[in-house]
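Throughout our pipeline, every protein is held as a single compact record rather than as scattered files. The record that follows is passed on verbatim for readers who wish to inspect the format.
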Amino acid sequence: MARDGTIAGDVGPATYAAWRASTLGAVTEAIEHRLVLEFTGDVAGRAVLDVGCGDGALVLAARKRGAQSTGFDADRRMLTAACKRADAVGVPSTFVEGRAERLPFPDCSFDVVLAVTVLCFVSDGAGAVREMARVLRPDGRLVIGELGKWSLWAAHRRVRGWLGVRTWRTARFRTASELRALVEQAGLVKRDVRGAVYYPPLGALARLMAPVDALFARLTTVGAAFIVVQAVRPLSLRIT
């Protein structure tokens, strides 16, 4: 995804476009989106919130599947791009500006909350997940997609951060266990965890290995550049 930040500097709409235009970006985003949407399940008629929606790709994907989708992002440039994208394809969607640690929505507002490549850039990851849990309805589903800690991609990003690329200077990568702990600390029940993108960040290898990427996911999340956690809010959970 453009959130991958493989282009130096801040991540913006142009970064997303350039990333998707590359072989590596197109293959990788397709794998990530497929897994996120699989974990999201049937969203027809459901209220879906995408925290850190970027330029709205997953918001529109959910809307096309029949969801009442809302995009949320801290970057006004991204929201402007998301609105233009939605208008261009004639898909009505709602976009709201703000920070993940302080979601401006009432308790129990959404059936599904997505957060893809967001927590790595949030200073208070635990607080952000608690907010996501708060706005979930009882038995609602949270799907978190994050950048894996132990992969060649993570090593590459760390080096870029050390060399001064702002996107990766303070980013935090997590293991599947760390992500599971975050959702459980928020009172949610983990249902599934899976990795994806086991190839190095090279376009030729991405195209070659994409067809067998799911085979690695059956074995381990170690080495995965992308980790997805699915959790639900139990009926008994009380958010204070």
Observations:
- Residues 2-232 form a domain with the Rossmann fold fold (CATH 3.40.50.150).
- Confidence is low (pLDDT under 50) at residues 1-9.
- The beta strands are 47-51, 68-73, 94-97, 110-116, 136-147, 189-196, 226-232.
